[in-house]
């Protein structure tokens, strides 16, 4: 049972700062320590289709001691973050936050709840398993080096958001929430160079000295034709031209074809996430 003094309720718009302070406390001892800010959190919410008013907070008096961020999209809800500040853990608050998020999402029409947990976060994995979530698949992040290539097949052309939308739908239907939702593509496209060929597209961006390939997709009926390899060469070459010293990819499906591609370009896996799902009905 949660101690009586802990209350759960939806966040007020004015409490964003306190939520971010709590998040920074929660994730300071995380597997990958994370530091957020109000603007970062608002951008993140926008990129995943979330709403601040849907966030549920746990309060001890006026202090935010935990939160959960349910992002509902039609029949699905994605738990875009849950955490309890260190001194309040092991008292059932995480469980109550998850149950509150599920109840809210069900009322909003969600039938399936989806989340990801970093491989090795045993505490969180145990919490989700106890609540009935099951492992469904895994996603990996990887890093490699930008490389100069001479010749990489068809020259990709600069692409607009309209060019990308349809290809994204056909290439990313079966990927993680943060890749398959069109709002995520729109957010990434704003800060990236976007390129396309007839059956695929790639986004590249450089932040300081680090290069990113936020998207590299080939439409499902044109896979195995070398387009992905050509786009990867093009992207690594472009990041090399831009002067990036490393190239990173995030949350890509851990599938044999993807792993072979990472291997081909000497990318090393840096992190693995496990997707878990639960039926709410
Ligand atoms: C994962 C996390 C949210 C769990 O929150 P929590 O409030 O500690 O969760 P609960 O208290 O509901 O459950 C945790 C444990 O406490 C136990 N517990 C639950 N109610 C309890 C109570 N009243 N008294 C004592 N123990 C209790 C649970 O059985 C569980 O035990 P277990 O770890 O042996 O399975 C928290 O550890 C956290 O914030 N971690 C850092 C951020 C993070 O990893 N977030 C998830 C990202 S995917």
Question: Secondary-structure map with pairings?
Answer:
Blueprint: E1 6-10, H1 16-26, H2 38-48, E2 56-60, E3 63-73, E4 76-84, H3 93-107, E5 112-118, H4 122-130, E6 134-144, E7 157-158, H5 161-171, H6 177-180, H7 182-190, E8 193-197, E9 200-207, E10 210-218, H8 227-242, E11 246-253, H9 256-264, E12 268-279
Helix pairs in contact: 2-7, 5-7
The structure holds coenzyme A.
Coenzyme A binds near residues 82, 83, 84 and 123.
Give a description of the structure:
A hairpin with a 2-residue loop joins strand 9 and strand 10. By secondary structure, the chain is α+β, with helices and mostly antiparallel strands. Strands 1-2-3-4-5-12-6-11-10-9-8-7 form a twelve-stranded mixed beta sheet, with helices on both faces. The protein folds into two domains: 6-110, Aminopeptidase; 141-275, 3-Layer(aba) Sandwich (Aminopeptidase). It contains nine helices and twelve strands. The longest helix has 16 residues, at 227-242. The chain starts with 5 loop residues before the first strand and ends with a strand. The structure holds coenzyme A. Coenzyme A is lined by residues 1, 26, 30, 82-84, 89-95, 117, 121, 123-124, 126-127.
């Amino acid at each position: 049972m949660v101690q009586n003094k802990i209350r759960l309720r939806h966040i007020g718009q004015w409490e964003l700062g306190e939520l971010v302070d709590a998040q920074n406390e929660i994730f300071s001892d995380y597997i990958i320590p994370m530091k957020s800010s109000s603007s970062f959190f608002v951008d993140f919410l926008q990129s995943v289709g979330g709403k601040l008013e849907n966030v549920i907070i746990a309060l001890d008096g006026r202090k935010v001691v935990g939160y959960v961020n349910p992002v509902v999209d039609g029949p699905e809800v994605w738990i875009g973050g849950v955490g309890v500040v260190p001194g309040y853990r092991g008292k059932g608050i995480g469980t109550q936050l998850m149950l509150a998020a599920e109840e809210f999402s069900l009322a909003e029409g969600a039938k399936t709840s989806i989340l990801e947990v970093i491989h090795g976060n045993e505490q969180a994995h145990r919490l989700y398993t106890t609540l009935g979530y099951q492992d469904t698949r895994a996603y990996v992040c990887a890093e490699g080096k930008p490389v100069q290539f001479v010749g990489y097949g068809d020259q990709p052309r600069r692409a607009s958001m309209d060019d990308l939308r349809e290809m994204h739908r056909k290439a990313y239907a079966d990927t993680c929430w943060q890749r398959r939702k069109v709002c995520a593509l729109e957010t990434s496209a704003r800060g990236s160079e976007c390129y396309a060929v007839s059956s695929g597209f790639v986004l590249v961006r450089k932040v300081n000295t680090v290069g990113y390939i936020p998207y590299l997709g080939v439409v499902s009926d044109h896979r195995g034709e070398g387009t992905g390899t050509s786009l990867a060469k093009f992207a690594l070459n472009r990041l090399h031209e831009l002067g990036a010293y490393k190239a990173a990819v995030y949350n890509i499906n851990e599938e044999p074809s993807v792993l072979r591609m990472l291997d081909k370009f000497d990318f090393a896996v840096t992190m693995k996430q496990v997707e878990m799902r639960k039926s709410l009905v």
